[in-house]
Amino acid sequence: MKKTLLLALSLTAAAYSAQAQTAAPAAVGPVAGPAITFEESKFDFGSVAQGATVTHVFKFKNTGKTPLIVNNIGVSCGCTTPEWTKAPVAPGKTGTITAHFNTTGKFGMQNKVLTIESNATAGTATVALVGEVKEASATASTAPAAPAKMKVKVK
């Protein structure tokens, strides 16, 4: 009886021990589908005068295992226009998104977000242009003209 009880306890302990073991985590590598990874997700353009156009190139890499295709880029306002790599980006290769921000009519702190729609497994991605737009100083062409000098003869 003691042998049977000891055998049963040993088998139970072995079963629990085997159940508690887990497989070692797999090495982290490229995801199965396409993946988009940006060098920077936010660009701070500092301070610019109102009316200037800010342009910045966001570089990205396909860190996945299949070609990445950027389908569309949405913008947070019509003052920002994007251009991007239209051809599929092979795994390990890079592409670009160029953002143009027209500051006309803008003033103060700005945060312009671009939403990247692609076939990446993670879904959409975002990048942003941030900075301050300051009032443009008066230039010679907009400054009021000096009063003309006139000679007046009195009779």
UniProtKB/TrEMBL annotation:
Keyword field contains Cell membrane: no
InterPro entries xrefs: DUF1573, Ig-like_fold
Descriptive protein name: DUF1573 domain-containing protein
Organism superkingdom: Bacteria
Pfam families cross-referenced by the UniProt entry: DUF1573 (PF07610)
Cleaved signal peptide residues: 1-20
RNA-binding in keyword set: no
Keywords per UniProt: Signal
